[in-house]
Each structure stands twice: as C-alpha cells, then as structure tokens.
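Sample log: Small ribosomal subunit protein uS13.
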Amino acid sequence: MPRILGVDIPAKKKIAYSLRYIYGIGPIRADLIVKEVGIDPDSRAEALTEEQMNKILHVITENKWVVEGDLRREHTGNLKRLQAINCYRGVRHRKSLPVRGQRTSTNARTRKGPRRTVGVTKAPTK
C-alpha cells in the first residue's frame, strides 16, 4: 500500500480515486494532481514509483493546499470557536441538532440519533 502524507491509499484503485482518501483532496484536486505530475490516469496506485509519490507531495505543498491533520485541526477549531462564543450555530453543534435551519419535530434522525422513548413504562404485574 502506498503511503502519502501519512495515509495508506488503496493500491488496487486508480490513482485519481486513491488520492481521494487523503482528507482535503477531492475529485477535482485529485485529477489536477494526476495531470500536473504527468501520471497515466488509468494506472493503479500500486504502480507508483518513489519519484512519482515525491512529485505528488511536491504538487500538494507547492499549491499550499491544507490537507489531513492541519485541515482537521482547522475544522475542529472553527467548531470550538462557534461553541465558545455561544452563537446559534455553536449551540446547535453542542446539542447535536441540525445547524442550518432544518425542521426537528420530524426527521433529523441522523443528527439526533436513534429515538429515545419517554414516558412509556410497563404496568406492574400482580
């Protein structure tokens, strides 16, 4: 398995698809990297040479893209800042409720988690 930026990318997939396993690199950036490095888009990640992996790293750093740990840190920092200033979005994040105005009386199960039944108790047996 090739390792780029501390991430094991799948060896059996095409390079453009394998690069997407790096947090912060999506389809457009992956295609751009493949073109800029000059790799055949149909080749698999297991066929990458050490030189090509260094070129991929160089393209990412040269374009100053924030990826992996730095991007994750930035993202969590933004959420913590919103929660610290007690703004509406921060409060919604803290309570694990939808942030962008969706309804919550029905739906929102992904964000709220499984239903928790309240007030239904079993009658005592005699």
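Observation: The chain has two domains: 3-64, 83-112.
Observation: The domain at 83-112 is CATH 4.10.910.10 (30s ribosomal protein s13; domain 2).
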